[in-house]
Amino acid sequence: MKIIRYALLGVCSVFLLSGCSSGKEADTPASSTEIKVSVTAKSDPATSETVSTRSSDTQTTDTQTTQSSSETESVASQGVRLSDAQREQINLAFLEWAGQRAAIGNMAVSGWYFDHGAAGRGDWYANTPDGQVQVQNQDLPGKSAFPIRAIGGCVFYTSKDGGIGKQELAAGSFAENYSVKMDFTKPVSKYLLGDNGVVYELKSGNGEMVSTNTGFGEYADDGSVGEYTPRAAFQISEDQAAQEKLQELIQRY
Which run of H or of E encompasses 149? Predict the structure, then answer.
């Protein structure tokens, strides 16, 4: 009987060992499968990130190219991009409006707000609380050196001959300038239209002589500030109607 018992125990042991071995073999492929899935899952995001980064780089390059092109075309860093023809149209429309306003106040107005005689090769400009406004470009130092460019301007005054509204102020010669038709004993206001949408004003007259280059300076021939600087600075005009009119005209473009 003992022999039979020992024989049975031996057979059971063999079956148990065989079962354990079979279980381990079954576990191994499962573990291998999990590793492969895990690697695949990590690989996909990595690929996605690479594509995303390249796409971002491309977009950045495109943006930089667009910005560079925009800066080249832009005539002023703070101002709207306007062609010379658009500037002239806005200036003429503003002058027509100013003529009506001047007539109401029994004053005259002219578009001859700026001019100069024999001068150097530098750009002409005016000082304002918002920075220098380029009035005439001669590429010394050039458009990019100014935060604002002038669209145009006008000058309000009292005419010696009693004329009101829009008037032809230009004299027979530059030397005669404003003295021929302008009454310096009365107020004189120069309006400067910036392409940043702001109207700047320089008040003078009232006994002080005024000329077409009053309020303006010129850069030196080497593009530096030089010695010929404006003797007076323009201020932001308190004429709210004029501010609104300029904004309205600019928005058309």
Answer: strand 148-157
Distance CA 174, CA 155 (A): 16
C-beta separation of 119 from 227 below 8 A: no
Residue 27, CB-side half-sphere exposure with 13 Å CA sphere: 6
Nearest to 160 by CA among 204, 108, 210, 114: 108
| 3-state helix, strand and coil shares in percent for the chain, rounded to the nearest 5 | 45, 20, 35
Strand partners, 191: 154, 201
Task: List Cβ neighbours of 27 (8 Å cut-off, separation of 6 or more).
Answer: none
Nearest to 120 by CA among 215, 214, 222: 222
Q: Which positions ≥6 away from 34 have C-beta within 8 Å?
A: none
Predicted confidence (pLDDT) per residue in 41-59, tens digit: 333 333 333 333 333 444 4
The pair of structure tokens assigned to 110 is 């002219």
Weakest-pLDDT range from 14-18, 208-212, 228-232:
14-18
Token couple for 49: 């990130």
Task: State pLDDT tens for residues 78-88.
Answer: 677 899 999 99
Residue 134 burial class via C-beta count within 10 angstroms: exposed 0-12, middle 13-18, buried 19 and up? buried
Counted residue by residue, the chain has a size of 253
What percent of the chain has a predicted confidence (pLDDT) above 70?
69
Long-range contacts of 129-136 (CB under 8 A, 24+ apart): 129/233, 129/235, 129/236, 130/78, 130/194, 130/196, 130/198, 130/236, 131/78, 133/192, 133/194, 133/200, 133/234, 134/76, 135/192, 135/216
What pLDDT is attached to residue 227?
A: 92
pLDDT, mean over the chain? 78
